[in-house]
Amino acid sequence: AMTQSWIKFNSEYLKLVILLVSKKRNKTFQLPSPAGATWKIGDLEDTIYSGEDYEVNGWGKFYLPEKVSMQVVGVVEGIPRCDQLVLMTCCEDRQVYAYDGEKLHLVASSLKQLSDEGIKYPGCWEQVRLCDSGEPVGPDNYGLYCLFCKRLEQQHHELVMSKKSEFLKHLKSIQRILGESLSLCCRIKFFSQLSLVLINQ
After folding, report:
1. Same domain, 93 and 158
2. 27 or 178, which is more confident?
3. H/E run at residue 77
4. What is the pTM for the complete model shown?
5. 91 shares its domain with 172
């Protein structure tokens, strides 16, 4: 019962957010902070990631310790060295996050704080190190990093297994084209490269 009520709670919040975006779409507001920043309300189609739904799924799956649902609420423009920040709210904690093309930042505790106080950018770095291979993993977030890697490895394995028959089909086609058997080393390289292609589709 607790789980059902929680799902309903998140569902109601999502409906309210979608309604807000629908009513205020394309309207631009000056943010109190940082100076010169504006918030243009919109959905994914109003961002540079238009049509790329997998991006939103990725933001909700790979950047936080737990898998969450993200809903785009617009973009922030007017920030130095950043053409466009994609704003989204998390249906589980109702906080506001921003994606700058590389990292996911926690920029406001709620949509109300976003409107009243603006955003803090760069944001909460603890939320981005899990997916930022260029950043060192410190002792404070090493456990979260391991959980993230384990989940990513599991999802990769599931994807490969689900495409196993397709892999073998392509492998046999290549063998026919070459007219000879591929070595074990070639097979391993082939499977690795093909799995990467499928992941990035």
Report:
1. no
2. 27
3. strand 70-77
4. 0.59
5. no
Q: Is the pLDDT of residue 3 over 50?
A: no
Q: What's the start-to-end Cα distance of the chain, in Å?
A: 38
Q: How much is the pLDDT for 6?
A: 42
Q: Are residues 12 and 98 in the same domain?
A: yes
The packing angle between helices 184-199 and 164-178, to 10°, is 130
Report the pLDDT averaged over residues 37-52. Answer: 91
- The answer to whether residue 95 is domain-embedded is yes
CA distance 55 to 40: 19
Buried b (16+ CB within 10 A) or exposed e, 50-86: eeeeebbeebbbebbeeebbbbbbbbbbebeeeebbb
149-158: pLDDT as tens digits = 556 667 666 7
**Are 158 and 85 part of one and the same domain?**
no
Tell me: do 65 and 159 sit in the same domain.
no
**Can you give the residue range of the structural domain that contains 173?**
142-199
55 assigned to some structural domain: yes
pLDDT of residue 191: 57
Of 114, 108, 92, which is closest to residue 41 (Cα–Cα)?
114
Nearest to 101 by CA among 139, 78, 128, 126: 128
Rounded to whole angstroms, the Cα distance separating 140 from 49 reads 32
When pLDDT is averaged across residues 93-112 and rounded to a whole number, the result is: 88
With contact defined as beta carbons under 8 Å apart, do 62 and 85 qualify? no
pLDDT at 146 over 90: no
